[in-house]
Amino acid sequence: MKNCTKCNKSKEDECFIGCGGRQCNQCDRCRGVVRKFHIKNKCEHGKRRPECKLCTDPYEVTTKRMMRNSQIYDRHHNRFYNLTYDHVSTILHETTHCPYCNTTLQYMNRAPDLATIERIDNTKGHTDDNTIICCYQCNCKRIGDTIITG
User: What Å distances lie between residue 58 and 7, 67, 68, CA to CA?
Assistant: First the structure.
């Protein structure tokens, strides 16, 4: 007899045998509930529904990911973060080409021409007046040290 870590009920040892014969800490009933929950929230592409760019608006998914990554980066480097969803969404819809290399920006797959948020002045954090949209390749090259006006 063994206790399940999720439901805390005592069950037979065979209830704790998982996929491939390995031992689990949760009983088969609890693992089934967890499995059903994850399957229910996944789309036909095998991703979580809100994060699938094929099932939802790719601009919305890209905007939320870019904002979250910028926030984490600024927090890690002790910089001020003040981006608004409306601002990022607006400039993402308006910007079709990278201002540095003039390549057409895309929003679906991680690639050199993926749209990213660039800080104009890299000594400041991500704010509405200090960000533009550029391609991933130019953002990684840190070309943004030059302030672009316009």
Answer: 39, 14, 15
Q: State if pTM tops 0.85.
A: no
CB 45 within 8 A of CB 55: yes
**Interval 67-91 mean pLDDT:** 90
Same domain, 28 and 85: no
Choose from 51-55, 63-67, 129-133, 139-143 the range with maximum mean pLDDT. 129-133
Cα separation, 28 vs 89, whole angstroms? 44
Count of structural domains within the chain: 2
| Residues 150/135, Cβ–Cβ less than 8 Å | no
d(CA 80, CA 75): 8
Please enumerate in sequence order all residues whose Cβ is within 8 A of that of 66, keeping only pairs 6 or more positions apart, or say none.
Answer: 88, 92, 115, 116, 117
Among 10-19, 26-35, 47-56, 101-110, the range scoring the smallest mean pLDDT is 26-35
Examine the domain organization and report whether 88 and 121 are in the same domain: yes
- The 8-class DSSP code of residue 148 comes to P
Q: Do residues 124 and 68 both lie within one domain?
A: yes
Which residue carries 């529904």 as its tokens? 49
